[in-house]
Amino acid sequence: MTRSDWQTEEFERNRQHLTSVAYRMLGSTTEAEDAVQEAWLRLSRSDTQAVENLAGWLTTVVARVSLDMLRTRRARREDYAGSWLPEPIVSIANGPEEEAELADSVGLALLVVLDTLTPAERLAFVLHDMFGMPFEEIAPIVDRSVAATRQLASRARRRVRGAAPAADPDLREQRRVVDAFLAASRAGDFEALLEVLDPDVVFRIDVGGVAPAARPPIVGAEAVAARVLERGSRLAPHARPAIVNGAAGVLVVPGKRPFAVVGFTISGGRIAEIDVIADPAKLRAATIAAGLST
């Protein structure tokens, strides 16, 4: 086997891990794929004979590329109208939902919180808390001391614990709650909606940063229920069960083309967060994976 063949084999062996790191850093499957592709290009141009741990080398490259992409994106997003939500990972729920690939999933709610961190905080948290990378290896990536890198992760950890609701892990229970929500929406039953919504539920919608259609988050069960009945009841009949980032969700398909992906965070048997991704650019990969036309 040539050196080039070995590099290719090692890269493919680590591709899923690298994509997982990049997705948690960026919240976008498209950008994650770009970051991983850039890592491949750098590998193909580098002399790695002296590298003892190629997987670690590749992870570091993906982390650096993702960090640069995050910094650039933060500057661009200052003009983004309304809520920005991650690009979802979607699969159609067919048969027993426990068969869904949940081991490598990350919830939309956590990704939303991660997006409030500084790029350096996000990198320190993702690499250390989610992938177990030592701070000694993370510090050079963010150009900080080891102690300062620990502080970055600590600040990020406090933000995550204080903002991300603890999701119920049982997928069947999640689906029961989502089905009850959809039934109440279809029936126009305000009281039934209140039964499944957490009193402090948050509703967000991402329409791609288009100002006329953008809306700020809605907070509170009554306000969210009113919004759902005002706008969502006509779409509820077109909701198809799906797995959205490892949790019970729906694809809304009024015709042959998808209109939105809806993710739910279920906590304590009620819906704590509703995230509606209606940005066409964020629906392409999800709907292709689900076998639908974009």
A few lines on this structure:
52% of the residues lie in helices and 15% in strands. With 294 residues, it is of the alpha+beta class. Strands 1-4-5-6-7-2-3 form a seven-stranded mixed beta sheet, with helices on both faces.
Describe this structure in words.
The protein has 2 domains: 3-163, Butyryl-CoA Dehydrogenase, subunit A, domain 3; 171-289, Nuclear Transport Factor 2, Chain: A (Roll). It has helices at residues 3-26, 29-44, 54-76, 108-114, 119-130, 135-142, 146-163, 171-187, 190-196, 221-232, 280-289, and strands spanning 90-92, 197-206, 218-219, 239-244, 247-252, 260-267, 270-277. It has a 7-stranded mixed β-sheet with strand order 1-4-5-6-7-2-3, sandwiched between helices. It is of the alpha+beta class. It has 11 helices and 7 strands. The longest helix is centred in the N-terminal third of the chain and has 24 residues, at 3-26.
Which secondary structure elements does this structure contain, and how are they paired or packed?
Elements lengths: L2 H24 L2 H16 L9 H23 L13 E3 L15 H7 L4 H12 L4 H8 L3 H18 L7 H17 L2 H7 E10 L11 E2 L1 H12 L6 E6 L2 E6 L7 E8 L2 E8 L2 H10 L5
Parallel strand pairs: 2-7
Antiparallel strand pairs: 1-4, 2-3, 4-5, 5-6, 6-7
Helix pairs in contact: 1-2, 1-3, 2-3, 3-5, 3-6, 5-6, 5-7, 6-7, 8-9
Could you report the average pLDDT, rounded to the nearest whole number? 88
Q: What is the succession of H and E elements?
A: HHHEHHHHHHEEHEEEEH
Number of domains: 2
Query: Helix count, per DSSP?
Result: 11
Q: Describe the strand arrangement of the main beta sheet, using strand numbers.
A: 1-4-5-6-7-2-3
Largest sheet: 7 strands, mixed
Principal-axis shape equals elongated
Structural class: alpha+beta
Span between termini? 42 Å
